[in-house]
Amino acid sequence: MKWLQIKKEHLQQILTWRTSEFVTQFMYTDIDDNMENQYLWWQNISNDPNGRYWIMEQKGQLLGFVSLTNIDWHNKRGEWNYYIGEAKYGMLGGFIGAYVYNYAFEVLGLEKVQGAVMAENVGVRKIHQKLGDREVGFYEQHVLKNDNWHDVYLYEMTHERWNEVGMKFKKYKAEVEEK
């Protein structure tokens, strides 16, 4: 798997994914199908010293988006996020966390990576459990979307725990384009 730096030519694809029902149903917010706003978003993330953002590619196919955000370099922790852009590649989502943890711990030197998942996103919650994440609780009625409140479950993985539970996933190392 390759993680490519997001370039101008990727913006329309990311916008198409991000505004699709398949992706947006589990996102905290919905965005407008607006390329000007997409370009501004890209400019902001391109200059974010506390975030890393990529488009994922496998065998020449663009699959989706992955990021490490809100990186606290002093306390060596950050948050990970991803989405697979199309349902036909959904089965690959179960492995993205392993790629993220290997990169975050081995390359960036982080000690903790956190994730947050809307309660209704049962598949991604199961992925966190499969990877050995510790569920640390949930925020009740945390996100208001489409006039409905949604709980958000919180997960964390420490470098130490990954060294214990992640051994079977050590081979999942992305080919990462760096800034």
TrEMBL record:
**Recorded GO MF terms:** acyltransferase activity
Short name of any one Pfam family annotated for the protein: Acetyltransf_3
EC number assigned by the record: 2.3.1.202
Domain called N-acetyltransferase: residue spans: 1-160
Q: Per UniProt, which keywords does this protein have?
A: Acyltransferase, Transferase
Which major enzyme category is it?
transferase
Q: Which PANTHER family match?
A: GNAT-FAMILY ACETYLTRANSFERASE, SPERMIDINE N(1)-ACETYLTRANSFERASE
Which protein is depicted?
UDP-4-amino-4, 6-dideoxy-N-acetyl-beta-L-altrosamine N-acetyltransferase
Encoding gene per record: pseH
